[in-house]
Design a protein that fits this description.
The protein is mainly β and about 325 residues long. It contains no helices and 33 strands. The strands form nine sheets. It has a four-stranded antiparallel sheet with strand order 3-32-31-30, with no helix packed on it. A four-stranded antiparallel sheet has the order 4-5-6-7, with no helix packed on it. A four-stranded antiparallel sheet has the order 8-9-10-11, with no helix packed on it. The two termini are about 15 Å apart.
Length: about 325
């Protein structure tokens, strides 16, 4: 068993077999009242009964809708697709409130969105045809929207709101001969209050409210770094063992350092139990918060997604459970 000193919890190994299976979906969220699993297959959105996993309703409004976001009051679900369409659903009635399509761009819309602190708006990152970005503010009452923020030659990768700080964090970089990477902070009125320059490009960020740490994945790195609010002090680093490969060309060869499981594509964080999932080319690996490998799912593509408030994780539609003891 593994001991998590931060929380005083004793956590045993994750179940060997899935406790539930959700047909036709590979990732999802659980509503905070524990009534529904909501899953996506990119082509469709599925509402399942949480206890029985029975399929209740299916939607096909948002093509490639692989990003799901729950509002803080558990009343709304926002879905974002890579083709630029966004849908907002009323969870209780299971009805589409509105959908909209980002116009004037043919680029994939891979960046995220977030609910505002007041629950009245969405802040959505848009990529234009030059791969530059702007922020779109969407009114949740009727789906009307406006362009609210952009700077010349900038691309944004992620926006998150941290209630503990009463602050929005916008990650991005300025496109120049030497790219300048940054995280920019905004207050509740979305007025810029600070900026910190980063050493590298951050491809994904998650915040841990229990630890008050930001977990960052850097593009050229094979580890996840946990940093404090200054973004300069690395508190811990989580990674698998690395190996050095020799890549041979026609007239030369070069050394490449990579994980023993191959290229790292992404990660997700369990905010309550502080487990972490890292997705590699050849496996999905679950780590504890000390960086120790707890379970390996070999030859499995796609990231794991933790259900906040539950000791459960979903991987390609299969739900596994951990045992947690105080």
């Amino acid at each position: 068993k593994t001991y998590l000193l931060v929380l005083g919890w004793r956590i045993s190994m994750i179940s060997e077999k899935p406790i539930k299976k959700l047909k036709r979906c590979y990732s999802g969220v659980v509503t905070r009242d524990r009534k529904y699993y909501i899953g996506t297959s990119s082509a469709s959105l599925y509402f399942y009964d949480y206890k029985s996993t029975e399929l209740i309703k299916k939607f096909q409004d948002i093509p490639y809708g692989d990003k799901l976001y729950l509002s803080d009051d558990n009343s709304l679900l926002a879905v974002k697709g890579t083709l630029g369409k966004i849908g907002v659903y009323d969870i209780e009635s299971m009805k589409l409130r509105f959908s909209l399509k980002v116009k004037g761009t043919s680029q994939p819309q891979d960046a995220n969105l977030c609910f505002s602190h007041c629950g009245k708006f969405l802040y959505n990152i848009v990529y234009d045809d030059d791969l530059l970005s702007y922020l779109m503010k969407i009114k949740l009452s009727d789906g009307s929207y406006e362009r609210i923020y952009n700077q010349p030659r900038e691309s944004y990768t992620q926006i998150i709101f941290v209630p503990q700080h009463n602050c929005y964090y916008l990650f991005g970089f300025e496109r120049a001969k030497e790219n300048r990477f940054f995280v920019r902070m905004f207050n509740l009125d979305f007025i810029e209050i600070d900026e910190i320059v980063l050493d590298e490009y951050t491809s994904h960020v998650e915040y841990s409210p229990i630890e008050d740490l930001f977990y960052l994945k850097f593009l050229q790195d094979y580890s996840i770094k946990a940093v404090d609010r200054t973004f300069s002090h690395v508190v811990k680093e989580i990674s698998s063992e690395t190996v050095t490969e020799i890549i041979k060309g026609n007239h030369s060869q070069r050394e490449v350092v990579t994980s023993k499981y191959g290229y790292m594509s992404g990660f997700s964080l369990s905010k309550e139990t502080l487990f972490m999932s890292i997705s590699y080319e050849q496996a999905v690996v679950i780590f504890d918060n000390k960086g120790k490998e707890q379970k390996i799912f070999p030859m499995l593509c796609g990231n794991a997604h933790f259900f906040d408030g539950l000791n459960e994780v979903i991987i390609k539609g299969e739900i596994y459970q951990f045992s947690v003891e105080k």
